[in-house]
From TrEMBL, chain A:
Catalytic activity reported: N(6)-[(R)-lipoyl]-L-lysyl-[protein] + 3-methyl-2-oxobutanoate + H(+) = N(6)-[(R)-S(8)-2-methylpropanoyldihydrolipoyl]-L-lysyl-[protein] + CO2
Listed GO MF terms: branched-chain 2-oxo acid dehydrogenase activity
Keywords: Oxidoreductase
Family annotation (InterPro entries): THDP-binding, Transketo_C/PFOR_II, Transketolase-like_Pyr-bd, Transketolase_C
EC number: 1.2.4.4
Single biological process term from Gene Ontology: branched-chain amino acid catabolic process
Domain Transketolase-like pyrimidine-binding span(s) in chain numbering: 65-240
Transmembrane segments: none
Gene name for this UniProt entry: ABSGL_06543.1 scaffold 8365
Cofactor annotation: thiamine diphosphate
Gene source species: Absidia glauca
UniProt name for this protein: 3-methyl-2-oxobutanoate dehydrogenase (2-methylpropanoyl-transferring)
A Pfam entry, by short name: Transket_pyr
Enzyme class, spelled out: oxidoreductase
From TrEMBL, chain B:
Source species taxonomy: Eukaryota, Fungi, Fungi incertae sedis, Mucoromycota, Mucoromycotina
Record protein name field: 2-oxoisovalerate dehydrogenase subunit alpha
Natural source organism: Absidia glauca (Pin mould)
Domain Dehydrogenase E1 component, chain residue ranges per copy: 101-396
Matches recorded under SUPFAM superfamilies: Thiamin diphosphate-binding fold (THDP-binding)
Family named by the database record: Belongs to the BCKDHA family.
A GO MF label: metal ion binding
Encoding gene per record: ABSGL_01580.1 scaffold 1725
Length: 387, 442
């Protein structure tokens, strides 16, 4: 397997900013993470969600972090508060190919932060073994594209460990972190979003953050959750997404979606880096269709997902657009669409639209045409509104 | 070059042997420090290997094969100890207990196998021919964590898993610790440090390496032991697990039961090298091959392996050469792919239980009368367990939905309510009388 060094990814990212607008956006919308209103750029904004307001009373200190720094901060806190916690994977001890583990060896030593041989099934199996005797294992799979050799260990072993033993043994201390999703030039094996493969597996939890504040809170919750969790980190956000992150130890709830923008006419659901394409699509739609009001929901947890929040929203708006980078057929969007159909049948005023990657392998030079971009998401919103 | 790389680990073992009590006539000369130093020295050698001129040659030689490893044996077919200095220093009680547990397993296997044939349980796997592997159990400590494949009930028998506990699991009744979720023989018990068996082959191998690493970090004087067959050793997880244990210095004993067959596949179709043991050397793991039908050889090797693993924090590989006398499972008829005569000969002339019994008889620690009485006692106990187990209810239907996660998710709660509704609406299609009552009974 080819492992392209991240330096190339990240430096190109900084130059291009994958989602960043070309010089003259013809619709006047400043696209991308760089212009997102969802990121908390001022310290006082960091606590402006019901989940964190209480915390600010105790310690309202924040620090500017990008996503990889927030991930790093979460692991550092997890290892400080839990002596049994270890971090391992390919190339993690020098800091990781995306710098997410930098400085951890110096803080916690080589026994707790270590490189493994290049074997994904081994990494997952080793992590299952550590967790099975009560330790906290934070394993890294270098790219989500390379998680498939570990599929057996994750699906047949980790996910079923508690159930099959009658709750005598469990691997609740297991977390697998992995960079996922498009990065501008990742081709087949540095771009995939494999969450739907795992969403079909009872016993697992699948979590994906959209920002540094989320990355820290959700990763800490994932590490401490008493179930095996796969934590997918959108790699295009590692450096691009920057916000003021609370310095305290805090967790965000797993299994709860977040309503990012209230609206009344159409519900728009996504997760991870797709949220920024949706944010821009909503801006465009509300600009082009005056009076339109969209509700934006970040799923955050893909399994078990927050049916209640989504269903409540669609029962209000009567329309739904779901978007993700992964291919359409049997993707997470299909699960959401059919559940909404079951629960909101009488309220739906238009067919649910799914905006996804095409049913092809992730292509290199055609990435711009493959992606469920702002314009495709806008088109879907327009369709459900005009139906 | 070839010979020397082959000989090094053997030599290390030879020097280790000197230190153990079962090698009589030798002063205890084994020292942890000396061995760590030699291990460090050999590491340095490997690291500097390609910098030094004398590692090159003008001879173009393709390495083809190395001399097959011999299997370590303490006693022959007649139960006679070959080299008295290798006879373990044990008491009569210890030996008799070990024998009784071995014959208990054999007797239990016979009855449970028949029970499957009669349709009383759905599936079973016997241990015929591999009973001497129980020597491992006797050489380990109670807290050493066991990761098995499925033919390792000897570990449970030795550690005191009761006949009732075995039978309840096979019947999937409400007393089954696994709550009726897995097929028969997928035992597991936290109190005896025996990880629940799962069907996917080889998956336990890297897991055992991880568990042992955790023990090392926690400063525990414990190891993990991982059992697998020679067929499972062809899985990628074997490679992953051994390589990880070696590079990360996990105190794990990898124990391969090489019984000649993986279902119908003879080992000649499983590998071309010198069995599994030769691979251990390639991973930098100290390795030994033992006569798997010789309980004392298995015992001695495991005892020494445990000491190295726990004291020096590194893995050991043991390949135990034996023969699967029984069918692969109750779903298999092995006469379809191997000669019945061969099986009968092995059962008769190289039987681990018979060999051990002859040893005990030579010592006058056991006789026919005691044997008959013991087997009768076990048979009665198993049949009694059967009668009790069959009367028990199946586990409560609650257990269909619990333990998927630590807590039931909203989705699972909805699905359980859906099933409750179906049961109410179509009671004739959902017989619930066989199951223990639900706590949330609808």
């Amino acid at each position: 397997m080819l492992r392209t060094s991240s330096r190339r990814f990240t430096s190109l990212l900084q130059q291009h900013r994958f989602y960043a607008a070309s010089t003259q956006p013809n619709d006047g919308i400043q696209q991308g993470v760089a212009h997102s209103k969802l990121l908390k750029r001022a310290p006082e904004e960091a606590f402006r969600t019901p989940e964190l307001t209480r915390m600010s009373a105790i310690n309202s200190e924040t620090k500017k972090m990008n996503l990889f720094q927030a991930v790093n901060d979460a692991m550092s806190i997890a290892m400080t508060t839990d002596d049994t916690a270890v971090v391992f994977g390919e190339d993690v001890s020098f800091g990781g190919v995306f710098r997410a583990t930098s400085g951890l060896v110096e803080k916690f030593g080589r026994d707790r932060v270590f490189n493994t041989p290049l074997t994904e099934q081994g990494i997952a199996g080793f992590a299952v073994g550590m967790a099975s005797v009560g330790h906290t294992a934070i394993a890294e799979i270098q790219f989500a594209d390379y998680i498939f050799p570990a599929f057996d260990q994750i699906v047949n072993e980790a996910a079923k460990f508690r159930y099959r033993s009658g709750n005598q043994f469990n691997v609740g201390g297991l977390t697998i972190r992995s960079p996922c999703s498009a990065v501008g030039h990742g081709g087949h094996y540095h771009s995939q979003s494999p969450e739907a493969f795992f969403a079909h597996c009872p016993g697992l939890k699948i979590v994906t953050p959209r920002s540094p504040i989320q990355a820290k809170g959700l990763l800490l919750a994932s590490i401490r959750d008493r179930n095996p969790v796969i934590f997918f980190e959108p790699k295009c956000l590692y450096r691009a997404a920057v916000e003021e992150v609370p310095v305290e130890d805090y967790e965000l709830p797993i299994g709860k979606a977040e309503v990012l923008k209230k609206g009344t006419d159409v519900t728009v659901v996504g997760y991870g880096s797709q949220i920024y394409a949706l944010e821009n699509a909503i801006q465009l739609a509300e600009k082009k269709m005056p009076g339109l009001s969209c509700e934006l929901i970040d799923l955050r947890t893909i399994l078990p997902w927050d049916v209640e929040t989504v269903v409540e929203s669609v029962n209000k708006t009567g329309r739904l657009v779901v978007a993700h980078e992964a291919p359409k057929t049997a993707g997470v969007g299909a699960e959401i669409a059919s559940t909404v159909m079951e629960n909101c049948f009488l309220r739906l005023e238009a067919p649910v639209e799914r905006v996804c990657g095409w049913d092809t392998p992730f292509p290199l030079v055609f990435e711009r045409f493959y992606m469920p971009s702002m314009i495709r998401c806008y088109d879907a919103i327009k369709n459900v509104v005009n139906y | 070059m070839l010979r020397s790389s082959f000989v090094r680990p053997l030599h290390r073992f030879a020097s280790l042997n000197k230190g153990y009590s079962f090698t009589a006539g030798q002063k205890l000369s084994y020292s942890v420090l000396a061995n760590v130093q030699s291990a460090e020295a050999s590491k340095t050698n490997v690291a500097s290997k390609w910098a030094s001129e004398d590692k090159f040659t003008s001879d173009m030689t393709f390495v083809q094969n190395i001399e097959p490893l011999k299997a370590y044996r303490v006693m022959d077919h007649t139960g006679t100890v070959l080299d008295k200095s290798h006879e373990p220093n044990i008491t009569e009680d210890f030996a008799v207990n070990l024998y009784k547990k071995m014959s208990q397993l054999h007797t239990m296997d016979g009855i449970l196998y028949e029970a499957q044939r009669q349709g009383r349980i759905s599936f079973y796997m016997t241990h015929y021919g591999e009973e001497a592997t129980m020597g491992t159990a006797a050489a380990l400590n109670a807290e050493d964590m066991i990761f098995g494949q499925y033919r390792e009930s000897f570990m449970l028998v030795y550690r005191g898993f009761t006949i009732d506990e075995f039978v309840n699991q096979c019947f999937s009744n409400e007393l089954d610790y696994g709550r009726g979720r897995q097929m028969p023989i997928h035992y597991g018990t936290k109190k005896l440090a025996f990880q629940t068996i799962s069907s996917p082959l080889g998956t336990q191998i890297p897991q055992a390496a991880g568990a042992a690493y955790a023990f090392k970090l926690a400063g525990k004087d414990a190891c993990s032991i991982c059992f697998f067959g020679e067929g499972a050793a062809s899985e990628g997880d074997f490679h992953a697990g051994l390589n990880m244990a070696a590079t990360l210095n996990s105190p794990t004993i990898f124990f391969c039961r090489n019984n000649g067959f993986a279902i119908s596949t003879p080992s000649s179709e499983q590998y071309r090298g010198d069995g599994i043991a030769s691979r251990g050397v390639g991973y930098g793991i100290d390795t030994i091959r033992v006569d798997g039908n010789d309980v004392w050889a298995v015992y001695n090797a495991t005892k020494a392996a445990r000491e190295i693993a726990v004291k020096e924090k590194r893995p050991i590989l043991i390949e135990s050469m034996t023969y699967r006398i029984g069918h692969h499972s109750t779903s298999d008829d092995s006469t379809k792919y191997r000669d019945r005569k061969e099986v009968e000969e092995r059962a008769q002339f190289d039987n681990p239980i018979t060999r051990f019994r002859r040893y005990l008889e030579q010592k006058q620690w056991w006789d026919q009368e005691q044997d008959d009485a013991w087997r009768k006692h076990i048979k009665k106990a198993v049949l009694q367990s059967f009668a009790d187990a069959e009367k028990k209810k199946k586990p409560s239907l609650d257990y269909l939905f619990t333990d998927v996660y630590d807590e039931m998710t909203p989705n699972l709660i909805r699905q359980k309510q859906e099933l409750d509704r179906l049961i109410k609406e179509y009671p004739e299609y959902y017989p619930t009388d066989d199951h223990a009552p639900s706590s949330s009974s609808s």
